[in-house]
Amino acid sequence: MATEALGWWGVPLGILAGTLRGSAPFLFVSLGECLTEKSGKINLGLEGTLLMGAMSAYGVSYLTQDIVGSFWAPWLGVLAAGFGGMVLGVIHGWLAQQPRVNDVAVGIAMIIFGSGLAFFLGKPFIQPQASQLITFNLGAWSSNPAVQSALKVSPLFLMGVAIAPLLHWFFRATRWGLYIRAVGDSPQAAMAMGISTFKVRMFSIVAGSFLAGIGGACLSLYFPGVWTERISSGQGLMAVALVIFARWNPLQCLWASLLFGGAQAIGPAFQSVGIDSYYYLFNAAPYILTLVIMVITCSPQRTLIGAPGALGKEE
Amino acid sequence: MAIAQAAPASWLYRWRRPLEAVALPAAALLAAILIFGVFCALAGANPLAVYGSIYKAAFGSWSAWQNTLIRASPLMLTALCTALPARLGLVIIGNEGALVIGGLAAVVAGLQLGTALPAPLTQIAMAIAAIVAGGLWIALAGALRHYRGVNETISSLLLNYIAIALMNHLVEGPMRDVAFVTKPSSAELDPSLLIGNLPGSRIHYGLLYGLIACVIAYVLIQRTTFGFAARTAGGNIRAARIAGLPVGKLTLAVCFLGGSAAGLAGMIEVAAVQKRLNASLVSNYGYAGILVAFVSRHNPLATVLVAILLGGILASGGILQRSHDLPDATVLVFQGIVFLCVLFSDSLYGRLPWFREKPAT
Amino acid sequence: MPNRTPLGFSRRQVIRGLLATTAFGAVTKLSTGCAPSSDSTGATDEGGSASDEVVVGFIYVGPKDDFGYNQAHAEGAAAMAANVPGIKIVEEANVPETTAVAESMRNMIEIDGAKVLFPTSFGYFDPYILELATEFPEVQFFHAGGLYQEGTHPENVGSYFGYIDEAQYIAGIIAGYASQSGKLGFVAAKPIPQVLRNINAFTLGAKSVNPDITTQVIFTGEWAEPVKEAEATNSMADQGIDVVTCHVDSPKVVMETAEKRGIFSSGYHANQGPLAPEGYLTGAEWDWESIYTSLGEQFVAGETLMAGDIDHILRGGLADNFCKLSDYGPAVSDEAKAAADAALEQLIAGELIIYPGGLKSNSGDVVIPEGEGYKQDNIELEKMDYLIEGVLGSIDG
User: Fold this and answer.
1) Cβ(C6)–Cβ(B344) under 8 Å?
2) pTM higher than 0.90, yes or no?
3) DSSP string covering A6-37
4) Are C52 and C236 in contact (CB under 8 A)?
5) Per-residue pLDDT of chain B (361 residues; tens, 9 = 90+)
6) Cβ contact (<8 Å) for B322 and C99?
7) What angle separates helix A279-297 from helix B152-172, to the nearest 10 degrees?
8) Rounded to an integer, what distance in angstroms lies between the CA atom of residue B147 and that of residue A299?
9) Is B190 helix (H, G, I), strand (E, B) or coil?
10) Degrees to nearest 5, angle at CA C332 with C329 and C336
């Protein structure tokens, strides 16, 4: 089967492929962070949660692949990733809600603790191979293997794409969504309504961490599909910026994740056709973009449109 | 419920508040050590032996002390980058970026001036370049916060990535020294510009600069009107504005000072340790500095102690691997536990009745 | 109840708890101060507890089981410990190429009493090994790489180096036969001479089969960058490249990604055959076990670099068992095997020159003067800073 080089067509195709691959972790982590921030608490510790999720997914998939077969093992891994995330979320949720404790500080502590724990427990899993998640061959119509490979989407990506509008509807149309938004905008009013801010925030933080853990599973069971200690490209920290970029709207989180995932793929795509200079500046593009957009749209007079009122305050 | 004992003399109570400030972090530390011991036991290592090894590698000999102090000196400076703005109520995590920018500026100054001026003057120029560059970098975050309302935590985080990308780009491109094959680096600084060691030890003068900076910071915050204004504004911004305090200027000044400390740390790293600019500059001193700042509750004097403590913990990573078969990540776990315990102890301030100034009735 | 703290404990319980904790902490400190820890590693402070043992320290830049560079060294170290009685190995992994390695080396010397150190990563040499070697002249430092220079560097430093590019040459021959598109890919970490030698040797081997073959090089910038390596492999596959090899610390990612894309792969450092059962052709592997074992025997016999008993520059290729080839995979044709085996014999016999005279770089310059060409031990090869004709890519990237 002759493969024709794509030459310059390789670049947009590479970016498309990179977007579909690389945005999955961004998607889950940003949706999780969005959920958490809607309730008024920032969770910077998602970087540690991401790594914990990646490690648990890979480890559980490896350990169970002989028991349940190579189709179900990765899905068990995904579940394990979610639960691992939830454990870290419980710690964060409890500690961050103690009086006089600063969100950001807890977040950074959780990054250190979460990643330390993940690396510690993950040492035995660096060498072995775990079963990977299946992928859907959306590119089967093409005879070009590059196109076929670019359009191999993971079910996790599709799940993430489905969760975004679901989350959006959840915030707008359900009672629990209202509770979360109430607690996030004005905790005093919520308490007056009889809502327990502690429970609602705990729920959001734990649920958000569950999603972030699954985001980690995307890394180790989909792309790049390995477990090593350098697997994260900072998606956990970037998710916080991403959520602000997306105005705390889950649908915009979806588009923003695609944008950030694609931006990550520009550097390598250009390198494969020989353009090497400015590699680092390409990689820094999403950060510069976020900063610029924040500068343009913020103003000291009014808070960021869409920002939960209690975000950043210690209430 | 009647109080079981008679109220002690009232002078005893005056000491309880300050005692609280020491006892709570100390108790948190002990709790963290205990929890870590349980963790080690679960991992199959003997906790008492582990404690002994950590002590031996961190504080057990003069050589160990030197390792610890070498690791602690940049932390003292980078911690100030978070601690100073925190007094104003700002949460800055851009220490890593400011360090890198400071190192970059210092190297550019050092390479441009070369041996044209007497070495001490060039070193001062490098330090000034680093201080100004680092200060402006964080002042940018402060300005964005004051004039545009941009969350300083996020903006300083983004500035980290941008600074590192800029440094990498320059070091692999325009500033690259092709003769150095180990990794893409700038040219080496002239040996006369390097910062030497304290006589009789392996510790470079950066330790001294770190100590001096922390003392200056303490005096600035606690004993000057500027510091008082900053702390007032940190307590309640609206009240400060009403009182006529120049909040904008305070924000910029405090951010500049914090960034300049981190920038100076970058210059010291390059001039004392690395001798050239390359990606090794990014060794997480910035993020560890955030940890030190929070654990020391943003008090510059406590920062010195906490930096030494963290330096000791970091210095013991190797011995855990070699003697106890614990992976290098164990040190990360220990740091995380310490940080979490200390943060929790924060929430206990003022809530434990024993430490209150008046007896409970 | 006024005496309850927010945690629900009474004041008395809190105070008791704190006192107990403090007492425990004090007891811990005292008890470990009195009796040496049971895990002591034969430190020589007490005058040599296991003084007959020679303590050899190994330092790795990544994990010991990375299916790559570090694993190869770790397996060699284990062989030294197993085959040579009187050797005790201490290891530290995940030590970055920063001052951290200087500290690790110092700790191994002072606390563990190491007399020989093997800091295995390329970037450890300048300035860390050099500084420590000057400070501890009675400790031997062995560095894997060709950097030792007689007269410039301290007496207690030695370089050992395997001509693994010989194995890459053979792997290139196999790749040349296997490739149908005529395009090969090389995922490289940094453009240092060792890496460039491998790229060039691989290409030369392939060109001996198909003179028009090309090799696309992508530099990831660091020894371990799993995401970039995966992206690079994917974009190479997109470009129609059908055989990939690499020079990164852990080829696991490249091999697995290549297998996912259904293209052929050629391994490096260690045998990655199990990772890519269908596409793995062969690989260029280190064989540190024999070298380390013989060095270990020399250490135990008291031989040192400083006294001149051990060569400062240890070199060898396939013939001296410094490296070897992985077993051929299922996709290698018999024709390819025959050609490869023939070339192997010639290399071992010293008849085959990989770098011929008149060799041109990919920018058109002649980099090897017309004539005989360079033999493997030619010092000029260790300063290689070019990519040969047929390699797509540049060093500055």
Assistant:
1) no
2) no
3) -GGGHHHHHHHHHHHHHHHHHHHHHHHHHHHH
4) no
5) 455 555 555 666 677 777 777 788 888 989 999 999 999 999 888 999 999 999 988 998 888 899 899 889 999 999 999 999 999 889 999 999 999 999 999 999 998 888 888 888 889 999 999 999 999 999 999 999 888 888 888 899 999 989 998 998 888 888 888 777 667 788 888 888 888 888 888 888 889 999 999 999 999 998 998 888 888 888 887 788 888 888 889 999 999 999 999 999 999 999 888 888 888 888 878 888 998 998 888 899 999 999 999 999 988 888 888 888 888 889 989 999 998 998 898 888 777 777 665 554 5
6) no
7) 160
8) 7
9) coil
10) 135
- Cα separation, B67 vs C108, in Å, equals 13
Contact A223 C230 (CB under 8 A): yes
Tokens of A59: 């480890």
Task: State whether B31 and C21 contact (CB < 8 Å).
Answer: yes
Q: Could you give phi then psi for residue C234, rounded to 5 degrees?
A: -65, -45
CA distance C213 to chain A (A): 14
The residue among B221, B197, B180 whose CA lies nearest residue B80 is B221
Residue closest to A275 by CA, chosen among A11, A9, A5: A11
- And the tokens for C219? 């530099």
| Pick among C28, C59, C104 to test the B interface (most B CBs inside 10 A) | C28
CA C70, C71, C72 angle in degrees (round to 5)?
A: 90
Q: Pairing state of beta strands C214-219 and C183-188?
A: parallel
Residue B354: closest C-alpha in chain C: C11
Q: Give the integer Cα–Cα distance in Å for B284 and C94.
A: 15
Chains in touch with B (≥3 Cβ pairs < 8 A): A, C
Counted across chains B and C, CB pairs separated by less than 8 A come out at 121
Q: Which helix (H) or strand (E) holds A152?
A: strand A152-153
State the residue for tokens 């085996």: C341
Query: What DSSP character marks residue C207?
Result: H
Residues 6+ apart with CB under 8 A from B207: B69, B70, B72, B73, B76, B198
> Judging by DSSP bridges, how do beta strands A136-137 and A152-153 pair with one another?
antiparallel
Helix ranges (H only) for chain C are: 11-34, 69-83, 99-110, 130-135, 164-178, 193-207, 226-238, 252-261, 288-300, 334-349
Give residue for tokens 């502690």. Answer: A198
Entry field: residues in chain C = 397
Strand order in the sheet with C243-247: C323-325, C280-286, C264-269, C243-247, C183-188, C214-219, C391-392
Q: Residues of A numbered 212-241 whose beta carbons fall under 8 angstroms of chain C's beta carbons: which are they?
A: 223-226, 228-231, 233
Q: Closest Cα partner for B93 from B104, B107, B79, B108?
A: B79
Query: CA C31 to CA C37: how far, in whole Å?
Result: 9
**CA B310/CA A109 separation, integer angstroms:** 14
Joined tokens for residue B274: 């690395």
For A271, which residue in chain C has the nearest alpha carbon?
C218
Chain A residue with the nearest C-alpha to that of B294:
A105
Q: Are A250 and A31 in contact (CB under 8 A)?
A: yes
C112 touches chain A (CB under 8 A): no
Report the C-alpha gap between A260 and C232 in whole angstroms. 18
Q: Inter-chain contact C239–A129, Cβ cutoff 8 Å?
A: no
Strand partners, C316: C162
DSSP three-state, residue C347: helix
Report DSSP letters for B43-88, one per residue.
TTS-HHHHHHHHHHHHHSSHHHHHHHHHHHHHHHHHHHHHHHHHHT
CB atoms closer than 10 angstroms to residue A38: 27
